[in-house]
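Reviewers of the previous submission asked for a worked example of the structure-prediction workflow described in the proposal, so we include one complete record here. The input consisted solely of the amino acid sequence. No template or homolog information was supplied to the procedure at any stage.
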Amino acid sequence: MMWWWCKYVLMGPFMRLLCRPTIEGAEHVPADGGAILASNHLAVADSFFLPLLLPRKVTFLAKREYFTAPGLVGKLKKIFFTGMGQVPLDRSVGSAAMAAMETSIRLLREGHLLGIYPEGTRSPDGRLYKGKTGVARMALEAGVPVIPVAMIGTDRVNPIGSRVWRPRKVHIKIGEPLDFERYAGLSGDRFIERSMTDELMYELMELSGQTYVDMYAASVKERAAADGREPARVAHTRAG
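From that input alone, the workflow returned the following structure tokens.
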């Protein structure tokens, strides 16, 4: 019920008015059953616009801290993130990566539509970075399709560091599901999982029009922080 209110009453109408979002390829998303929506990641707003334009509820993993803050503000945050389909991930117990993997596989097997960002973090400069192989492992373990999604324009709506969204056009392109059935039963093979991930990133590059960089985005951010600078933004996406 809270998801419905957020989508159709509390946030949806405002987002549609502000950014006039459009989508193509929504027919590639299955009407039911588990599936992975693997998207490029330009802004925090990505996790809001994709669920807005799809009829099915999209689940994302989110930091547990979003759900446990004290006081009235904390309670409102919990209601909001739960309503938007976010699932809390406790990163303090054991391996955060393993916790994310196990939670994702469980949700997929339960039939959820799971939103994943293979880059692992927002692009620091607007380019598309090397994907992490976790998405391939999830697909093989859960036996679900991987659907490439390109977010276009969200970085202009919600630039890194911004507190207020800006009125800019947002467009979403969804590609055909990738066929990885030929790799069934090969979960854990790092060469297979890397091949699957690279195939996915190529599809995202084609859909988004972004320049591809064969480095992890997190590494680029770490180097920039060590040098005391911010990565330069790159004009990259088609207008849609």
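Strands lie at 22-24, 35-39, 58-63, 86-89, 113-116, 128-129, 146-152, 171-174, 212-213. We consider this example representative of the routine output the project will generate in years two and three.
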